[in-house]
Structures are given as structure tokens and as C-alpha cells.
Design a protein that fits this description.
Blueprint lengths: L5 H23 L6 H31 L4 H23 L4 E2 L2 E2 H22 L11 H27 L13 E2 L27 E6 L2 E6 L8 E9 L3 E11 H5 L7 E6 L4 E5 L7 E6 L2 E2 L9 E3 L12 E7 L13
């Protein structure tokens, strides 16, 4: 189906690029309408395995010739294989952790480290496209390759369910249920270099900066909940939990703040995310979960609940909210710190 050589390298480059793009998309997908991104990511990942026999022949010739940069090429191969294997381990549930790391962390980490090596490999070992790559034969080969990769993905999913592996019960995002309706059993995680802060309720204040001025609220203003929602917190670390969250709808604090374009929600740690003002009536400032006040690890005294979004949007330990005319999308797609 795919002869060894230049076409195999081009196909691997395309598959790797699709896997990276859909991997990033998978992290951003929190609603079921985006499940096609996860499917595409799985198909691309298995596409690497489909191409492996042809690429192995090419690699053997390269190793025999001892070309410059061989060590970097071998490191790239190890990282790609590690990413694929860790991804399969996580999605099947056969291996949830590898030492102190989760399989998902190994999967993502290996893929990210592979990126600069892949860029170097493309520059050092160019496989330039040609007009003949758009021939009918090439298109048929591409279709056959996609068909085999898709079939492999469907077969793998069926095998996971048929064998009763834990991956058969994972959410469409790939996350595993952990601690639903049991807040005390829900993992405590935060983004990158954030740490759980020690916050004293009597000294904490929430500042809401609207277009018409600022207002400050103490913790007592949030001890009586006027809103509640059942929502699923789906962490990019590979777990999810559904809980009943109680608090105050963000729109109640903003009033006529729709004269602005976006709302910035900031944590005492400096972590922040920006949302469209039009979403304010769907965003809950939660002070309680499961009928009890939030724990420190889960965002005490106040955290954001954003149904349909992944966990990195659920800002914890909120101390400031700002309304302004900045577009909500004027921010990195994923927090940088």
C-alpha cells in the first residue's frame, strides 16, 4: 500500500502534524459536539503504527549509513513510540500511571519534546512534495491508508470494550471517572506551576471591576447560594468528576456589564482566563460543592464552574473579576503558567 521512501516520510510528517493539532484540540474539547477531534487524534495515532513497518526499513538503511544526526533521529523515534504507547495505555486503561507520572502526562510530554526534534528532522532530511504527489494513485493510497487507520481505531475501541478494560468506560474526552458526587474523592490538581494557597476567609475579598467602577465582596456574601448546577469537571490530566456546585451566577455580579466585551477571571495565584460577557449567565462562582464548602485544594473560597469547558477554564481561588473591551479570544488558547 505504501512503498518505503519519500512518500512514507511525507505521510508520517502529515500524520504527526494531524496528531499534534488534534491533540491540542482534544485538550480544548469539553462538549460532546467536539468528539470528532478525539476520534481524529486516535486515528492519527494509530496511523503511526500503520506506517511503522515501512518506516522501519528506511530507518535501518539510515542506521547502516551512520549519517550525521543519527542520535537525534533515534531520540525522535523513541519519543514518538513512547507517545503512541502511552496514549494506548491511557485510552485502554491498561496502565494509568508510570511511576510518579500518569500515562497521559507521558503521552503529552513525549509528544511535546518530540516537536523540536521533528522540526530538525524535516530540515535535515527534507522530503519535498512533488506535483506527482497529487496523482490519482497517490490519492487512492491516501484513502486506503486512512481506511486502514480508521479500521484499526474502531477495532482497538471494540477490543477495549470486549475485554472489559477500564478504557471502555472512559468519557468521550478520554478521561476516567474519579470521585463523582464525592467531592472528598475528587483529585486535587492545578495548572502547571500553581500551588494550593492558604487563604483566610475573614481576610479574603473579591474585587469586581465593572465598566462603571469597582466593588468589593467579602466571603459572607457567598455563604448563601442563589444558584446551583450539576456540571462535569473534566481535567486534562485524564480524569473527570460530576458534582453539584452551588454559588452565585456571575451575571448577578455584573449587572449591566454587557457594555464590555469580555470578563477576565483571576486567581490569587495570578492564573487567569477570559470569557465572553454573553456567557456570564452560564458561569457559576461556586463556594460549595456537594452541599459543603469548597476545600482549599478545590478552590476555597471561590472557584469558577464553566459547564462544557475543560478543567483549565475552571479558575480556582478567585480574587478579581474585570469587565473590559478586550475580545475574549485575546489570550493563549492554553494558559502559559
Amino acid at each position: 500500500m505504501m512503498a518505503p521512501g519519500r512518500r512514507t516520510n511525507l505521510a508520517l510528517l502529515a500524520v504527526f502534524a494531524v496528531a499534534l493539532a488534534t491533540g491540542a484540540g482534544s485538550f480544548a474539547t469539553g462538549a460532546s459536539a467536539g468528539r470528532w477531534v478525539i476520534w481524529a487524534h486516535g486515528i492519527a495515532g494509530l496511523g503511526v503504527l500503520v506506517l511503522a513497518p515501512w518506516k522501519t526499513r528506511i530507518a535501518r538503511r539510515g542506521v547502516a549509513r551512520r549519517r550525521p544526526g543519527l542520535s537525534a533521529s533515534l531520540a525522535l523515534a523513541v519519543l514518538v513510540v513512547s507517545a503512541v504507547v502511552a496514549g494506548l495505555a491511557h485510552s485502554s486503561g491498561a496502565l494509568r500511571s508510570i511511576g510518579p507520572l500518569t500515562a497521559m502526562q507521558v503521552h503529552v510530554g513525549a509528544a511535546l519534546v518530540a516537536v523540536p526534534l521533528a522540526v530538525w528532522h524535516v530540515i535535515a532530511r527534507p522530503a519535498r512534495p512533488r506535483p506527482t504527489d497529487l496523482s490519482r494513485r497517490t490519492l487512492l493510497r491516501t484513502g486506503a491508508f486512512l481506511g486502514v487507520s480508521t479500521t484499526a481505531y474502531i477495532a482497538a475501541e471494540g477490543l477495549v470494550r470486549a475485554t472489559g478494560l477500564p478504557g471502555g468506560d472512559r468519557r468521550f474526552t478520554g478521561s476516567f471517572e474519579t470521585g463523582s458526587f464525592q467531592p472528598e474523592a475528587m483529585p486535587v490538581t492545578q495548572w502547571l506551576n500553581d500551588a494550593v494557597p492558604a487563604i483566610e476567609a475573614d481576610r479574603w475579598r473579591l474585587v469586581v471591576a465593572r465598566m462603571d467602577g469597582e466593588r468589593s465582596y467579602d466571603y459572607g456574601a457567598f455563604t448563601r447560594s442563589d444558584g446551583a448546577v450539576r456540571a462535569t469537571l473534566d481535567c486534562t490530566g485524564g480524569w473527570f468528576a460530576e458534582q453539584r456546585w452551588e454559588g452565585t451566577w456571575l451575571s448577578h455580579l455584573l449587572g449591566d456589564a454587557d457594555v464590555g466585551r469580555s470578563v477576565l477571571v483571576r486567581s490569587v495565584t495570578g492564573y487567569q482566563r477570559r470569557f465572553p460577557v454573553s456567557d456570564a449567565d452560564r458561569l457559576l462562582l461556586a463556594s460549595r460543592v456537594g452541599g459543603t464548602p469548597l476545600s482549599a485544594g478545590h478552590g476555597f473560597p471561590l472557584r469558577l464552574v464553566t459547564p462544557g469547558r475543560r478543567g483549565f477554564w475552571w479558575v480556582k481561588w478567585i480574587d478579581r473579576i474585570e469587565v473590559d473591551d478586550t475580545p475574549w479570544w485575546w489570550q493563549p488558547p492554553f494558559p502559559l503558567a
